[in-house]
Amino acid sequence: QTLSAREKNVVFIGFMGVGKTTIGELVAEKLSRSFTDIDEEIVKEFNMTIPEIFEKHGEKAFREKEKELTLGICKEKRKIISIGGGAFTQKEIRDICLSTTIVYFLEMSWESWKKRIDILLESRPILQGKSEDDIEKLFYDRQINYNQHHLKYNADEQTEEEIAEKVIESLK
Ligand code: S3P
After folding, report:
1. What EC number(s) has UniProt assigned to this enzyme (predicted)?
2. Residue 20 annotated as binding?
3. 152: which of 15, 16, 128, 144 is 20 to 30 A away, CA to CA?
4. Is 107 part of any domain?
């Protein structure tokens, strides 16, 4: 069954803290479509914060839940979805998103992104205990997965509003 762009789910990918959730919410609101943030759903399921999930259950349990919820929502239609920055390291998530949804990659340069480390540190267990060099390596390693997408926007110099407008335009 082939769905038109109006019916397809839209998924935002990209590294931590680039604006996936904010842009997803803006797009959903402007298009009167429903928005789901997979991280938020994981938090609800475990009834604890992401750092607590990593600490008490481990990253593996987090990734399992991330996969289950993402694969589940991909069966729906017209959803605007944001997934965590590590989700695309899972092949099953990449495969289902790329084959059933429209995947938007929100790209940012390392130079712009690294200014955000301090504000993200507390809520992102993946960054904790890592040197800036380690984080830079992770940043570049992750780009290989993000390079599998349908459309991309650069978030270095555009506001979240501007990107949301472009996403909406591309869906017309
Ligand atoms: C992660 C990114 C986070 C969240 C978790 C792990 C990652 O989501 O899923 O902390 O491995 O990159 P955001 O990309 O929304 O920060």
Report:
1. 2.7.1.71
2. yes
3. 128
4. yes
User: ipTM, 2 decimals?
Assistant: 0.99
0.95 exceeded by the pTM?
yes
Residue span of the structural domain in which 47 resides: 9-153
What are the CA-CA distances from residue 31 to residues 24, 34, 35, 79, 145 (Å)?
11, 9, 10, 10, 28
165, part of any domain:
no
Residues in Cβ contact with 9 at an 8 Å cutoff, skipping those fewer than 6 apart: 73, 74, 76, 77, 78, 79, 80, 81, 100, 101, 102
Residue 83 CA to ligand 1 center (angstroms) comes to 8
Angle CA 140–87–134, to nearest 5:
30
Report the domain count for the chain.
Answer: 1
The enclosing domain of 118 has a CATH number of 3.40.50.300
pLDDT digits (tens, 9 = 90+) for 129-163: 999 999 999 999 999 999 999 999 999 999 999 99
> Pocket residues for ligand 1 (CB within 6 Å)?
16-17, 20, 39, 50, 84-86, 124-126
Residue 158 lies in a domain: no
Which run of H or of E encompasses 54? helix 50-56
